[in-house]
Amino acid sequence: KAEDAKLALIKLRGEQNLDIVETEFKRMLMNFKIRQNERETNPSKIEAIKNGLTMFTDPSFLKPFGILCMVLIVGFNLSGLPVIGFYMIPLLLEAEIPIDPYLAAAMLATWRGIMSLIGTPIIGRFLKRTVHFCCGIVLTIGLLSLSAFTFFNQDSGLVHNAPTLGWIPIISILLIYTSVSLGWLSIIFQLRVSNNISISKKF
Q: Cα separation of 3 and 140, whole Å?
């Protein structure tokens, strides 16, 4: 309603000040266009929420996000890593190794930290998919060997008959920590970070 606005401005300033009216009116139109451009480039919070909700129904977002959620659940929660970290000392006590279990747990945690540092350049040199699948195979071997030891060592029968087999948990945890740190978990976290960046760019 530019004409009505100009007539209102003439009534406010007076017909004898048309030059002032024209100057102010041009300035008002320019400010209006600037605000309109700002709304288009920087939408309000409500518009941003609406855009975010519509993005969650976009297949180009849903597919990678769904894959990432599945990989994160399988890769972290179902990998046994949280459980192994929680029951590390009881596992080592059950193995009856000739090392202090707390010292062994600290050494295994240190090994995991070293492998995490080594894994960063390895991921950069090779294809992520290749590294991820290779680490998955090593992780599976470590989990199977640890599960088999726990199953057959009920009431410490296996360790009493063959004390050397008590080192299996440490070797298994070494394999698990190596595979997780070299790529299995670090690649998943990298994918999660890149996905979060792409979401923030869309917002």
A: 75
Cα angle 201, 49, 188 (rounded to 5 degrees) comes to 45
3-state secondary structure (DSSP) of residue 172: helix
Residue closest to 131 by CA, chosen among 79, 181, 82? 181
Residue 201 to residue 198: CA distance in whole angstroms:
5
- Encode pLDDT of 123-179 as tens digits: 777 777 788 788 889 988 998 998 898 888 877 777 888 888 888 888 999 998 888
Residue of 184, 44, 63 whose CA lies nearest to 116: 184
pTM, to two decimals: 0.60
Burial (CB count <10 Å: 0-12, 13-18, 19+), residue 149: buried
User: Rounded to a whole number, what is the distance in angstroms from the first to the last CA of the chain?
Assistant: 33
Sign of CA dihedral 129, 135, 137, 139: negative
The secondary structure of 61-87, three-state, reads HHHHHHHHHHHHHHHHHCCCHHHHHHC
- Give me the amino acid identity at 41: T
